[in-house]
Design a protein that fits this description.
Blueprint (H helix, E strand, L loop, with lengths): L1 E2 L2 E3 L11 E11 L14 E10 L5 E2 L2 E3 L13 H19 L5 E5 L7 H6 L3 E6 L2 H9 L4 E3 L4 H11 L2 E7 L8 H11 E12 L1 H6 L13 E2 L2 H9 L4 E8 L5 E7 L8 H11 L4 H28 L2 E4 L3 H9 L7 E5 L17 E2 L1 H7 L3 E4 L5 H7 L1 H5 L3 E4 L5 E2 L1
Parallel strand pairs: 1-4, 7-8, 7-10, 8-9, 10-11, 15-16, 15-18, 16-17, 18-19
Antiparallel strand pairs: 2-6, 3-4, 4-5, 5-12, 11-14, 13-14, 19-20
Helix pairs in contact: 4-5
Bound molecules: zinc ion.
Zinc ion binds next to loops.
Length: about 400
C-alpha cells in the first residue's frame, strides 16, 4: 500500500486560528469509498487520519487534505433512492414557511436533484450546482437544470448574471466536505437576496460525541464536524445570521440550520447553545476523553471479534464507506470476517480497501447460514435485524459493534 498525496492546513478552516489541538490520531487509512477491484488490491493509497479541535471557535476538523484524484468521482451514491422522503418533507416545510410564487431556488451539491425535484413540482424555478458529472447528468435528464461545477465566487457570479439573485439557497450534506469555506460563503453572499434564506443540513457533532460514532471519521472526504457555535461565528463574518436550527434523524443525527442576511426572530438558538455547552462541545477536555473512549472501544472490538471468530464464521453486513474506518482502525481483516454482503451492485465483487474483505450480494449470506452476522452499518441495526429476522430464527446471531458491542 502506498502513501497518498496530501497537504496539511495550519489554521482552522472557519476562524483561521492556529490554536489547533490534535485529540485523536487514527493512523494511516485508505479512502473510505475506495472499494477495490481484484487487480487493484494492494495499490490503494493511505492517508493520515487525525482529528483536531480548534480552541478558538471550537470547530472539530481534519487538516490533512487529500490531493489525489477526485474522491467523489466513482462511488458517490445517488441520494434519491434512500432519502427521497426526507427531502420531500424538507421541500414542503420550506415552501410553506418561506417561499412565494415564482421563487428562485439554488442548491449547492444538489446531487441527482433529490431536493430540487419536489421544489420544481411545486412550480418554483430551480438550479443545481454539483461537481460530480454523473450526478448532474442524472439531474438534467430529469429536467432539473444543474451546472457541473464547484460552488464559489466564480460560479455564483455566473449564476447571478444568467438567473438573478436567489430567494433560497440550500446545501445539504456538503459543507462538511469543503475545505475552502470562505469561497462558498462569499458565493452565497453574492447570490442570496437580502430577504432570502440559506438553509443547510450537516451531520451533527453532538451525536458523534454522544454515540461514539468514530466511524464517521475518514480521510479526505468528510473534513468538518459541525456544532452550532462555530457555524454562527463563521457565517456572521459574511453578514449571514443563523436564526433557527433543528435536529433531523438523517445520517445518524444531523442538524438543519436556517440563516438569512436580514435579521429574523430567533428560535431554538439559545436552547441549542446551552445544550452544546452542557455536552462539553466547547471544551478540549471533552474531546480528549472521547478519544480515550474511542481507543478503549476499538481495542475491545478487536479482541471481541477475534474471540468470536474462534467460535464460528462471521460475515459482515453493509459495506458502507464508514465500515472501512471501523474495520481498518480495529485491524479486522478477512481472517476474522470471511466476507461482507451488500445490496449495492457497484460494490459487489469488490474488496474493502486496507483489509481486503470481499463483497458479495446479500443472497450469499442467506444461503450460507454463518454463525455470526456483524452489522457494519450499525446505526441501522434495528432495521437490518428486522429485515433479516430469518437469520436469527435459523440460529444465527447478530453482532452490533457500536455504540456498545452486543451479540444478540
Ligand atoms: Zn476555529
Amino acid at each position: 500500500m502506498l502513501k497518498g498525496r496530501f497537504t496539511t492546513r495550519r489554521t482552522c478552516r472557519l476562524c483561521n486560528s492556529s490554536m489547533l489541538h490534535l485529540f485523536l490520531n487514527m493512523g494511516l487509512m485508505p479512502l473510505a469509498g475506495d472499494f477495490l477491484k481484484k487487480k487493484d488490491i494492494g495499490k490503494e493509497k493511505l492517508y493520515p487520519l487525525r482529528i483536531f479541535f480548534c480552541e478558538n471557535c471550537f470547530l472539530v476538523q481534519l487538516l490533512d487534505i487529500v490531493k489525489d484524484s477526485n474522491i467523489f468521482k466513482d462511488y458517490r451514491y445517488f441520494s434519491s433512492v434512500s432519502l427521497s422522503r426526507h427531502f420531500g418533507d424538507y421541500a414542503q416545510e420550506i415552501s410553506t414557511k418561506f417561499l412565494k410564487k415564482g421563487s428562485f431556488v439554488v442548491e449547492i451539491g444538489s446531487n441527482d436533484g433529490v431536493l430540487l425535484g419536489p421544489f420544481k413540482k411545486r412550480g418554483y424555478r430551480v438550479l443545481g450546482v454539483d461537481p460530480a458529472k454523473n450526478a448532474t447528468k442524472e439531474a438534467n435528464k430529469k429536467g432539473l437544470k444543474t451546472i457541473t461545477d464547484y460552488f464559489g465566487i466564480k460560479s455564483s457570479k455566473r449564476i447571478l448574471e444568467e438567473y438573478g439573485q436567489a430567494d433560497a439557497i440550500f446545501a445539504n450534506n456538503v459543507l462538511a466536505h469543503i475545505d475552502n469555506m470562505e469561497d462558498v460563503a462569499k458565493g452565497i453572499e453574492i447570490l442570496l437576496k437580502d430577504d432570502g434564506i440559506f438553509v443547510f443540513e450537516v451531520h451533527y457533532l453532538g451525536n458523534l460525541i454522544k454515540d461514539l460514532q468514530y466511524d464517521f471519521f475518514y480521510p479526505g472526504e468528510h473534513l468538518t464536524y459541525y456544532s452550532l457555535y462555530p457555524l454562527m461565528l463563521f457565517w456572521k463574518k459574511y453578514g449571514i445570521k443563523i436564526f433557527d436550527i433543528k435536529k433531523t434523524k438523517i445520517h445518524s443525527g444531523s442538524i438543519r440550520v436556517y440563516a438569512s442576511k436580514k435579521s429574523r426572530k430567533k428560535s431554538n438558538i439559545e436552547k441549542f447553545l446551552n445544550e452544546e455547552k452542557k455536552l462539553g462541545l466547547y471544551k478540549k477536555n471533552t474531546f480528549d476523553k472521547f478519544a480515550t473512549q474511542v481507543f478503549k472501544n476499538k481495542s475491545l472490538l478487536e479482541k471481541n471479534i477475534k474471540d468470536l471468530a474462534k467460535k464460528g464464521k462471521i460475515v459482515g453486513y453493509g459495506a458502507a464507506g464508514r465500515a472501512n474506518t471501523l474495520l481498518n482502525y480495529s485491524n479486522i481483516t478477512d481472517r476474522a470476517i470471511t466476507y461482507i454482503v451488500d445490496e449495492s451492485s457497484q460494490r459487489q465483487g469488490r474488496f474493502t480497501p486496507g483489509n481486503h474483505i470481499e463483497i458479495f450480494p446479500v443472497s450469499k449470506f442467506k444461503n450460507d447460514n454463518p454463525k455470526f452476522c456483524m452489522i457494519l452499518a450499525w446505526s441501522y441495526a434495528d432495521e437490518i435485524m428486522k429485515k433479516e429476522k430469518e437469520f436469527k430464527e435459523n440460529g444465527g446471531k447478530f453482532v452490533v459493534p457500536l455504540p456498545k458491542f452486543v451479540v444478540k
